[in-house]
Every structure is written in structure tokens, then in C-alpha cells.
Amino acid sequence: MKEDIAQVTVSVPIKDLWKAMASDNRHVVPKVLPDIVAEVELLEGDGGYGSLLLFKFCPGVLNVSHQLEKIVEYDESTYQIALEILEGGHLDHGFTAYTTAFKLTQVSEAETLIDIKVLYETKPEHNHIPGETIKATFRYINSLEKHLLKSLS
Fold this sequence. Notes:
Elements: E1 2-10, H1 14-21, H2 25-32, E2 37-44, E3 52-57, E4 66-75, E5 80-88, E6 95-108, E7 111-122, H3 132-152
Antiparallel strand pairs: 1-7, 2-3, 3-4, 4-5, 5-6, 6-7
Helix pairs in contact: 2-3
């Protein structure tokens, strides 16, 4: 597996960020990325480890209609979550495996450090630029931070 890693600090308390990224993920993502994600449906589980989530994209986005993800890591005590794509989305765009992992660390009462790791494999003919996988994740985090700052104020 190849990996891209990055860190970003956001001005959101760790508990609020964890709630949005983990337990409320399926409700928050369509609000945070309304031009990309129309709906997130919980197909199996309770939203924690082992749960299956179906991300339904807005018409015309990425030339795919959906992305099925499984939560493959979920640890509330260490603020770690990882989601593996099982079908659609990135797997329809040259990737054969794709998992995004987040680890949250409190920096201060109002700031949280997010460690991001994207593990992936590509099809032999797919020309992937290292670091490209992080761009979509940064867009999500940036939009999430803005959304949470509005709702917390």
C-alpha cells in the first residue's frame, strides 16, 4: 500500500470535531459538502466500527453516483477513525484500494490537530501524483471547520 500523510490544525474543540467526524458524520457531510454529497445513508451498524455508509453524490459529480464505505477503525478514547472505500467513488477513478484515517489530538481548548493518512493502491495504468489524495480531504476538513465555527458561535 502507498500512503499520503498530512497534518492540519483547526480552530474547533476536539469533542465537537470528533462528534462531527465520527458519530454525526452521515448527517454533517451533506451539509458540509452540499455540492458533492446529496445524502449519506447508514446501511449497517450503529455508525461506529464496522458500520457501512453509502455516500450518494449529487448528479454529475466525479462521474459516479455513490461511494460505499466501511468504518474500519473507530476509537473514541483516542479519537481515531478510518473509513475504507468498498465500492464506487475513488475506486471508479484508478484506485483498487482506498482508506482514509484520521487521528485527532487536542492542541488547546479551542484547537485540534488532525493527522491524516490515506492508504491506497492504484491500477497499473493509473498515473497518480503522490499527495493528490490529500486535496479532497483538506477540502472536506476546511468546509467542516467553517461549518462547525458557524454552528458553535
